[in-house]
Structures are given as structure tokens and as C-alpha cells.
Design brief:
The protein has 254 residues and is α+β, with helices and mostly antiparallel strands. The chain contains 6 helices and 12 strands.
Length: 254
């Protein structure tokens, strides 16, 4: 159950508490599915630097302590000059053999006259970030942003409860690969197709989408037209030309 902050604006007319979140439920059919990671941002990397001009690039210090008490990790470390460093209260993070292997690779070093152990975590080795249980509007968009997206494309708000494409993109980033087929059984304003095309444009993917919508006029008036415009390009509400993301679709009425 991931919490999405769909609004950052206070609702002073709320009867009791101003609600700012919705629930996004994630399921998998089996353990064969592996959740992906979220792309890193500059904010995620702010604590990395390279004060010692390490040839491996930017790094930050990491924890050397075991998160839980491990009797087999309570060993003393003898430094190259013969000094003894006692283990942390719960023990070291690695076995003694792994400790010295990391020392050889430079991940671990002795500092402060060999009285302390420094562990370097290198930025270039980190890849993405593990998804978190709260998705903030600043990161994945809000309902207001979703409405503005539709106004940008159509010049007016054409759907009552749209989702921001950034929210769906976050789901695609952690739950799809570049060749996935993405099914949206309630296509609504066509956000899923928009997000798929945007994600493909960003990572060179070949994802395809299947949108399902009941025959109440939305499919022809909003869903299909939105996909057509973001794929082929359109003139926005300001009269500016917006380039298309490429791709297309076929329409089938059942």
C-alpha cells in the first residue's frame, strides 16, 4: 500500500481533517516478479563528494556496524601498523575475511592515525533507489498537475479525475521493463498511454499499452485524442507547438 500525496494545497473548508493522500495498491502474481528501482535525482546525490580526489569518483561514508548483534562479527582488527581497533557493540558489518577483502579494494581504510575505520560508498556503484512507501507530490505529481496537463493538451479540463503522468511513470519505472505490455483496464483520460510514451522516449524503451474504456464517449473525445496528440504533436493552450513523442495506436470497438 503506497501512499500518494495527491494534493499539497490545504483545504480549509474540510469538515474535519484536510485529506491529502490516496492509496495505491501494488500486487504481484508470483515471486518471479522483481520490483525495480527509482531513478536517482540530484537531491539523492547531495551527500556524495570527493574531498580526497579518489579516482573512483564521488563517495560518502557508510556504516561499518552490524545492524543487529552478531557474535561471529565481534572480532578485533589489527591495523597495518599494529594498532588494535575493537569491534562496534553489535559487531562489524562483514566477516573478517570480507573486511580485509574490502580493505584491499579500497572500500575500507583506516583513518585518524589508524584509530577508526572508514567505509566509502561510491556514487557510481549505487544505481537506482529502493522505492519508498510514501510518494510525494513534488516527485510524482498531484491532481492539480494532472488537470494542468489536460489543459495544456486540450485548452480546457476535459476529465474530472485525471492522474498525473509522472505518477504512472513512477509505476512504470519500478514495475516494467523496456519491452513490457502495460494494461490499463480503466483508461480514463489516457494518462497511462501518455506515461508509456514519455518513459519510452526517456529510456529508449519499446513498451506498448492496452487501454480499455467503456463506451460512454470518453474514448473518442478524450482518451484516443490525447494519445494521438502526445504521439504526433499538438499546439498547446498558449499557441506553442509541442513535439510528439512518437508511436501510435489501433482502435477496436467490442
Amino acid at each position: 500500500d503506497v501512499i500518494w500525496q495527491h494534493s499539497v494545497q490545504g483545504k480549509n473548508d474540510a469538515k474535519n481533517i484536510s485529506l491529502h493522500h490516496n492509496h495505491t495498491l501494488l500486487y504481484r502474481r508470483s515471486e518471479r516478479f522483481v520490483l525495480g528501482k527509482v531513478p536517482r535525482t540530484e537531491e539523492n546525490n547531495v551527500n556524495y563528494s570527493n574531498p580526497d580526489k579518489d579516482p573512483k569518483g564521488d563517495w560518502r561514508s557508510g556504516d561499518v556496524r552490524s545492524p543487529n548483534l552478531r557474535e561471529n562479527l565481534l572480532y578485533q582488527v589489527k591495523t597495518p601498523s599494529g594498532k588494535i581497533i575493537d569491534p562496534p557493540e553489535n559487531g562489524w558489518r562483514w566477516s573478517e575475511a570480507a573486511f580485509w577483502e574490502k580493505y584491499k579494494t579500497g572500500e575500507i581504510s583506516f583513518v585518524a592515525h589508524e584509530t577508526r575505520v572508514l567505509r566509502k560508498i561510491y556514487l557510481r556503484e549505487q544505481g537506482g533507489r529502493v522505492p519508498e512507501s510514501i510518494w510525494f507530490g513534488n516527485d510524482v505529481g498531484t491532481t492539480r498537475e494532472a488537470s494542468n496537463e489536460l489543459k495544456e493538451i486540450f485548452g480546457e479540463l476535459t476529465f474530472d479525475t485525471p492522474k498525473p503522468s509522472r505518477l504512472i511513470k513512477r509505476i512504470l519505472q519500478i514495475a516494467s521493463d523496456v519491452n513490457s505490455i502495460v494494461l490499463d483496464s480503466f483508461a480514463g483520460s489516457g494518462t497511462t498511454a501518455h506515461a508509456v510514451l514519455k518513459q519510452n522516449a526517456e529510456d529508449g524503451g519499446n513498451r506498448r499499452f492496452i487501454l480499455v474504456e467503456i463506451d460512454d464517449g470518453i474514448a473518442s473525445q478524450v482518451t484516443a485524442e490525447r494519445v494521438r496528440r502526445v504521439a504526433q504533436g499538438y499546439t498547446n493552450a498558449k499557441g506553442e507547438q509541442v513535439g510528439g513523442l512518437g508511436g501510435g495506436f489501433q482502435f477496436c470497438k467490442l
